[in-house]
Amino acid sequence: MSRYFFYNVILVSLLNLMLFVPYLLIQYRYKGAIMSMLCAAIVGTALALLFMHVMKTFPGKGLPEILRLFMPKPLTIPILIVCAVMWLTASSITMYAFSVLINRFFNPDTSSLVVLVFMCLVCMYAATRSTLTVIFVLEVGLIVCVPIIVFLLFKAFNSPMLDWDAIRTVSHYWNRGPQVKPFAASLFVFTGYMNFFMFNRLNSPNFRLRFRWGTPIFCSLILLTSFFIPIGFHGTEGAADYLYIWSVTSDTLIMSYGFIERVIFVFLLMYLMLSLIFAMIGWHMGMEMIKSCLPEKKEAIDPARTPRSNWVIVGLFAVLTVAYAYWFNEKENLKITSHWIVLRACVEIVSVLFVFVLSLFGSGKRKKLVSHENTSHNAASPDGA
Amino acid sequence: MLNRIGTLFAESRDLTLDRLQNDSLIIEVAYISTLCDESKVSDFILVPFTKQEHPFEDLVKRNPSFKRLDDPAKWGDTLLHGFVLLQLNGMVYKLDAARIIRNENPQTMVETVIMGPQISLSEDLIDSINIVRSRYPSEELAVEERTVGTISKTRMLLVYDKHRVDATVLGLIRAKLERISDPFYTATGELVRSLGDRYRLFPSMMVTERPDRVCSAIEDGKVIVLLQGSMFAIILPSTFFDFLHAVDDDYDSFWMTRAMITLRYFAVVLTITLPALYVAIMSYNPELFRVQLTFSIAGSRSAVPYPSFVEVFIMLFMIESLIEASVRLPKYIGSTATTVGGLILGQAAQQAGLVSSIMIIVTSVVAISNFVIPVNNMSTAIRFLKYPLIVPAIFFGISGVTFGVFCYLVYLADLRSFGKPYFRIFGRRQSQSSDVGQVGR
Amino acid sequence: MKILRITLLALTALSFAATAGCGFRDIDKRFFVIAMGIDPADQGAKGYKITLRLAVPSPKVEPGAGNNQVVTMEATSIAEAVRLLKAHVDKEFDFGHCKLFAVGEKLARRDYTDILRWLTRRRDVQSIAYVAIGQPDAASILKVEPKSERYPGNTLFLMFGKDGTQSSYLVPVYLFDFIRRYREHGIDPVLPLIRADKDGYAITRLGVLNKSKLMETLTPGETETYSQIRNQDAKSTVAAVKNGNTMVINVDHIATHFKIANENGEYVLRLWLNVSGIFEEAPLGVYEEDWNQLEALFNQQIASEIKKLFKKMQQAAVDPFGFGLRYRATHPGTEQTWKDWQNLYPDLKFDIKVRVEIEGTGLVK
């Protein structure tokens, strides 16, 4: 079902706010942010299309299975670990950022570390579930949160306080050359498809992705929104002063007729939900990748009992996250994030191109693959459907 | 035969053992008189045997009501299920003469609808099957009989549509039924417990008395379990969304029923989160609401001497005991309890400054929205859910509530009802195009 | 599996225990600050005099039931003053509902920038709080206790908010808007001036500030013009005088737009103001007169008023309308653009085109 693909795309593109993407872009607003965004849109779309081809070539196979087709297991381990670390860091940074936000806006008297520990426990429980569960949670979460977030964005666009002159002023700086950091940051918005590195396991052989043109359009809109709306509300200069720019921006909106007057609380609660889902997916991805390095028999997609290895791996993730939050302060986190986002972009480009090349070779192997699939399917059918 | 049975039921005074003789034959008759309809015994056996209008031997052979029973080990069970044993020429026959005391044609009491069938399933299996078959006249309807309970040996029927039923689900159910080994089953609820994980927070099987619900479930390819002596059927597998779907939703005006379904989901969210939100907003984030609302809440709480969560627990204790009391009390005094508790106590507690008036509203909203859920076992399950959520609210405020809700969400999505996802949106239709996760099976 | 589950639960319980008690404070153990006044310290001392208006919630909700408590403290910094004030009250302050920050006029005329250091950093200060200048000082504004208040501070909330009165002389300014204008190149902050008026407030004037202090105060008429141009405020009137008779049109629809054009090397600001509405006050017989002439009269008088206002702003070297930002928005994005604007603003010419359309004369001729 293609809707699960779009859920991932939507989630990741909305989640850019938590990974300081708008912050990084706004820092470069006079120095090439717009060009970088344009380049990222082109590159991101191209990568997504390449990866869709990969998905079509290897239906029902996750990254580990694809790699296993072409190379011996020891070779796949480093690749998988690098990918797992990428997903782990994405989730951990999100969670750290949100624990700080909770400390700022909701519980000023509770230490952000305690909140983070609690968040980690919640996510540990969530991430150890089966892949199928994870994707159901994603679906429900998005169906609940996205309409409200879209409503808030709509409100923001309609607000008389939005200063279009400031937006126009910044857009006049479009002719500066693209830079690495804002490019990498905006590329993040387009990377939702990468969750299908693992979720592709769920896709059946006759999976067809429809409305794929929707991906770049939606992501570009989100990218433009998350860059320009804060500028419209805080001015060309003021926008660069804020660390958690979108939280402050959502505070500029008022729901005059609601129970809750300040939009910021609705906004933060919705994003808390999305961040938890994002962290859950990230950890789950990382966990599955590391698990596929272990010498174990092939896992069922939806096992009845949670394997113990899940708990161990995710527990390790949680400890790493808390340790990270313990050792690094907010400033260092921001700095690390801005470097990480560049590294992540590199890994994304390299890995997608790599898998794409494999899929080109794979078309020869495909026949073999299909026949193999059939035999295994027949073997499985007596106890199955 | 008689000796053998006599020793088997050594201390049963209601066991009737007779040796009869007419001109040509000697027969032995054994039955438990309390379980059997004596007129049936005399109509089928005693009268023809003594009148001798036809040779009794032929009669027994021709009448399909008499069935051969060769295994002496089954004699005891057969007698206990209300059969008459008849020995004729060294051969043993059984005759169903069970007399079952039950309520006649009961009306639906638990799950009422305005327009729709008013009659409920019967406590007798035969009548229930009659009701189901007459509503689902299809040759595909399969009825499997089993017994459950090592002592109770309660008769149980599995009913399903051969074509539509999911073979994996059916296999799982059969396997589970083989495994259960509790001694006694008197109500469907017990069977539900031993079939599922008893610690789970949400029911995975629907218990219903409504024949229309049963029939539409069969049509959906689900399996129905009927238990002798209980007028409730079990429908499995069930999803979360089935539980919030009342049968009226298919009978009444389309738009209003859609609105009611939406309302039910809101009600579920409210009844689960409201007490926790009250604690969180009172004690952590009073800036959440608009100014005017905050001040009126703060004003109403200003007389309350203890923290918000104590207040919540007091009121929830009161409302839960009120609900419990009105279930336990006879129908005629039930309403008195509600009046005393709801109106007088609530008003007085608020005036005495023990609870804030907002808390009274919260409690009533929680209780009322809980009653909106159409299926009773889901309603009770959800009644519990608000308590665990108060704990993170006490420690983390509004963000704690969100964490808790997220956990519930994951928990729900993680549940499987006999291998079927329990909480999958848009999962109802059986799509031809493949869905996620179907490769795994 | 079971052991793991139990350990996990135990861990959760432990983390609860670790946090137990901190941050838990009931709503009735908090003092809600509804307005904050910031004045310079008395007798020329360094620092600030902070006045807080605290809400005392009462269980009764009826007119006059809103109780307030006003506390004042002087200290060298705002944060210190707030901390000192805590020692004078029995409950914890909560700024989460602080809707008004009143800056004393003296402070505004001297230098207001320092207060932003506190306002921007505090997490519980709402971005959508209102900022205003208190005349003659902020403390006297906070001490006013309107008789009809149902909730403490409700008068202020209703006056500034959209659901109460909508006066065209009152231009509510949100904190974030104030900060934005303070930081932005090309637009300058404005703040409404509040006067205490027996048992209430009078808010009719607008103060125009530059990046550090109050420069100019607008008259009520000018304030209305400002809000017509900047906010396209349809709840306003336009007036003209003919033969000594004042004629007032109630605005139904208003639209303005402006652009900065280069004409023969000279920069001209062109402003179009389209107004339509019906007479609210006029001598009998306007129905028979030539409406075109009347409209022309309105056009000319309004245009001259606007021009006067623009000139006043130009002379004070402030730009509350955001002409500079519009210039930046329509010219290439370079550093030079902003510098150019700073040079050309003092010599900017104004070309104002007003088009009033009379839709009717009300109920009588």
UniProtKB/TrEMBL annotation, chain A:
UniProt keyword Zinc-finger present: no
One Pfam entry name: Spore_permease
Keywords assigned: Membrane, Transmembrane, Transmembrane helix
Membrane spanning residue stretches: 5-26, 32-54, 75-98, 134-154, 183-199, 211-233, 263-287, 308-328, 340-361
Keyword Transmembrane helix: yes
Domain of life: Bacteria
Name recorded for this polypeptide: GerAB/ArcD/ProY family transporter
UniProt organism field: Paenibacillus glycinis
TrEMBL record, chain B:
Taxon lineage: Bacteria, Bacillati, Bacillota, Bacilli, Bacillales
Pfam family, one: GerA
Ranges in coiled-coil conformation: none
Family stated for the protein in its record: Belongs to the GerABKA family.
Record field: transmembrane: 223-244, 265-284, 352-373, 393-413
Key words, A-Z: Membrane, Transmembrane, Transmembrane helix
Signal peptide from the UniProt entry: none
InterPro entries: Spore_Ger, UPF0353/GerABKA_families
Protein name per the record: Spore germination protein
Automatic annotation (TrEMBL), chain C:
Record-annotated Spore germination protein N-terminal domain positions: 25-195
Family designation: Belongs to the GerABKC lipoprotein family.
The keyword Signal is assigned to this record: yes
Membrane topology: Lipid-anchor
InterPro entries membership: GerAC_N (IPR057336), Spore_GerAC-like (IPR008844), Spore_GerAC-like_C (IPR046953), Spore_GerAC_C_sf (IPR038501)
Organism superkingdom: Bacteria
Keyword annotations: Germination, Lipoprotein, Membrane, Palmitate, Signal
Cell location: Membrane
Domain Spore germination GerAC-like C-terminal: 206-362
Protein name in UniProt: Ger(X)C family spore germination protein
Gene3D superfamilies on file: Nutrient germinant receptor protein C, domain 3 (3.30.300.210)
UniProt entry tagged with the keyword Transferase: no
Signal peptide location: 1-20
Source organism (scientific name): Paenibacillus glycinis
